[in-house]
Specification:
about 30% helix, 3 domains, Ferritin, elongated, four-stranded antiparallel sheet, Neuraminidase, alpha+beta
Length: about 600
Amino acid sequence: MADALKNVIAQSLECPVCLNTFTDPKILSCSHTYCRACLDNILECHGNDQMIRCPVCRAEIQVPNQDVSKLPANLALRSLIEDMKNQYQFCTNCKTEDKPQAVVYCQDCGIYLCITCRNTHSLWQNFISHEVLPMSEMVSGKVSVRRYRKCRKHPKEDEECFCPDCRRFACFRCVVMEHTNEGHRVIEAAVYESIHMKSIEDFKSKADKKRSCFQKYVDFIDEQKERVSNVQKQCTGNINNAYEESVRQLTKKKEILISEVKGRTEGVEKELDEMKKSAEQHITHLTTIADLVTNKTKIPSDMDALSAHDTLCHDLQEALDQEDPDYKQSIRSSKEGKSVRFMRNVGMDEIALGKIVNAVEKNIALPTKGSMNAMIGTPDGRMAVGCSTGGVEIFSSDGQLQQTVLKHVKIRRVGFLSDDRYVILDFSNKITLYTLEYLDKLNVMFETLSVDEGGWASLTVDSDDQIYVGYRKVKKIQVFSPAGGKAIKEIPCDEYEPHQITSCNDYLIIRSYDTIRLIDKQDVVKYELKKLGYIPCVAVSQGNTILIVKVKHGIGLVSIEEYTNELKHIQNIVIDYKIEKPERNWYFIQQYRSGEIAFCTPDRLYIFHLK
């Protein structure tokens, strides 16, 4: 009876997670106790969350500052463990009252043996293959004891059965008394252990495969990082070579250029680092929880241990259900860094070393020189260039001229409605609608002002299919329904001429000479950039930011900058890119749906690839 009591106490001193004797036991507010190391592992599985879920009862427990050491210690349990360690274990095989101290423990017999009994035990033929553990190694924790399960209600009976419905082991007497009448499915404990070990092996195999999958992804990200890093090194090397051929006064310019290269690549590297960190965290998560689930040293025997094991298996299954890495995401991120180039000045101002630019995909001559008068993105993601000599030329994002439509119509401005109909403004300020598929002229009339009445006009179409026509001479904007007829609204432009108008969400962007204004549709100026010193052109990006182009017409240099909807500068996209200087100072900018920026002069179309 005393041995059975000791066995019960020993089982009570085991952590439900690791199944070993508690080490630094910490008690949760739900009253369940675990090793501090086990709680650290469980907390790590939940990332940066300060909550921990009890594996037994699944209650959510707050962990102060994510530090398990700050949880209260189970002092009573710790004291009991120390007392048990300090007690001698006596031989359970000797029948005398004055039993000698045990020196070994036989795993197969489940008994402690003194020196005499050990010697006798080792001579018996049937016991030669038994696993015998020295007491010194058991006390130090180097080895784990495989204990026989004894029924707590019937201490002399082994728990030879397992009830899947109750999730607990039971002796044969308990099965007959408590489980059979309830219709429970009862199996042999050995069968359950076999199923349990198979489940553990299956989890381990799946965890290894998942870990390998994410490790390959981490390796792939390292490759992408290295390629981006090589671009940075190459650009830096080129800059250094150019610097060495120049004079000492170039030091400041050199540092600016290197800083710009880093600025364009470090953001990409940071994104890749975040992807790598996320993947590595998943590997750590899988490793930690898989190690907890696939612990082979013991089989969970009591209800708490079984509940803990079920919870951990559920957490592992959630980790295994996570989607595999998306390689396309890292490729998209690294592509921007790999497109950075150092362009050295040759035959121009070589003392300035050069500049950092993004790769330019195409530089296309327009079919009719000097005729470009408008540009807008098409509903299917291409780019439409309207020509004053007649026609709308459609270009793909790689710069291919795919078709020319409305060749008989002289274009001043062009737009599209949500049903893909063309909206054409001609040189007499008349608006005409055409179908997209057959390019049929629709019988819809708009009462716009003539050039004599209103002056030259500009045009834009908003997301609600309202058509805006801005007149320079009378300094106002008329708003039309796509049904035609008279203007449904007029917006006065106080003290400025609407040279170019662009729809941006619930606002209009107005360019007047060298000033840009962002107004609401009641003509209230929200934000403005005044007297820029150059004639800009404006577009709205795919990300709903504002793109502004500065052209130094006299020397043929183009810069593209990105601004917020409050007209605050975000970044320089293109800096002083050399173009073929056109005769006419007339430019447009738009962004393809796929991300490329199209910049058009009267003679040529330039496509900047910014992915």
